[in-house]
Amino acid sequence: MRATQKVGALVVDTKTDKIGYVMGHAGLYVQLRPPGGGREWDAAPDAIRQATDTEVLRARVTEMNRAARLR
């Protein structure tokens, strides 16, 4: 993947095996944030891939569970 990944795309950082939303680009890195919120991290553009359908579903469930706990 290159740094052209769109903001809002759900991707996997293959170096850390973490899933996250693309929040932006800073220098040579892609900034990612975990589903449901949390601390952003930087990933190398060549170390991210598009999330699979299963990973997208898992992320959505994580977000819904977090939202339910905050009510």
Can you give a write-up of this model?
The protein has one helix spanning 53-70; strands at 10-13, 18-26, 29-33, 41-43, 48-50. With 71 residues, it is of the alpha+beta class. It has a five-stranded antiparallel β-sheet with strand order 4-3-2-1-5, with helices on one face. A hairpin with a 4-residue loop joins strand 1 (10-13) and strand 2 (18-26). The chain is globular, with a radius of gyration of 12 Å.
Number of strands: 5
**Considering DSSP H and I runs of 4 or more, what fraction of the residues is helical?**
25-40%
Shape: globular
Largest sheet: 5 strands, antiparallel
- Structural Rg: 12 Å
The average pLDDT is 91
Give the H and E element order: EEEEEH
Order of strands, main sheet, comes to: 4-3-2-1-5
Which keywords apply here?
71 residues, five-stranded antiparallel beta sheet, 1 helix, 34% strand
Provide a concise account of the structure shown.
With 71 residues, this protein is of the alpha+beta class. The chain has one helix at residues 53-70; strands spanning 10-13, 18-26, 29-33, 41-43, 48-50.
Ordered list of secondary-structure elements with their pairings:
Elements: E1 10-13, E2 18-26, E3 29-33, E4 41-43, E5 48-50, H1 53-70
Antiparallel strand pairs: 1-2, 1-5, 2-3, 3-4
